[in-house]
Specification:
The chain is mostly helical and 198 residues long. The protein has one domain. Helix content is 82%, strand content 0%.
Length: 198
């Protein structure tokens, strides 16, 4: 996901750049879509290892599943539909260009809506996982507190309009969550395989 955000093209493009940008959009979003099942599998394993009788970690996994579906839809809109729509706008006649732009704008709005759902659902999932970590004392308090703060601030940022699901805002979200997951990973490794909660 980090590679996708770093490589994601943005800004205005000239007609000469359309094919290159279209290929980049398809490539980076294909990478993102391929990573979603892998990340979800990791989230499932993490939920199994940090969860307790309260099942907060499993509730976090359910929210993360919703988030994964939403971000898959966002990637389809921006990575598979948008390149074709951009090509149609460039090749459109003056009479059909406004219609093509209208469809492109609709696709963009769909992408943004799915990205917002992902931002909120994944952030709430992190909050639930972090609370589960704090309640069950599975990992250190610091990672639990960071997860609660990160998730709450992200949700507040989305609802206030301060954090937008554009390339920069979404990149900050992905980077913040990646740091949390990278902090959690060594702790899970130290727990060992016997720490799984069924």
């Amino acid at each position: 996901m980090i590679i996708t955000m770093i490589s994601h093209p943005g800004g205005k493009i000239s007609p000469a750049e359309v094919d290159h940008v279209a290929r980049m959009l398809i490539g980076v979003h294909s990478l993102a879509m391929a990573s979603i099942p892998v990340i979800f599998l990791g989230a499932w394993g993490m939920s199994r290892r940090i969860g307790g009788a309260d099942r907060l970690a499993w509730a976090g996994l359910v929210l993360y599943a919703v988030a994964s579906i939403a971000v898959m839809n966002a990637a389809v809109c921006d990575g598979l539909l948008a390149p074709n729509l951009i090509r149609q706008i460039v090749s459109a006649t003056p009479e059909t260009r406004d219609g093509s732009r209208l469809v492109m704008n609709y696709n963009f709005q769909m992408n943004q809506a799915f990205a917002r759902v992902y931002a909120v659902a994944s952030s709430l999932a992190v909050v639930l996982w972090a609370v589960s970590i704090l309640r069950n004392r599975t990992l250190g308090r610091g990672v639990g507190i960071y997860g609660v703060v990160l998730g709450a601030v992200t949700v507040a940022g989305i609802f206030s309009g301060f954090l937008t699901p554009d390339r920069h805002g979404f990149g900050m979200l992905i980077f913040g969550q990646a740091i949390w997951f990278l902090i959690v990973a060594p702790g899970l490794w130290r727990l060992g395989p016997d720490a799984a909660v069924d």
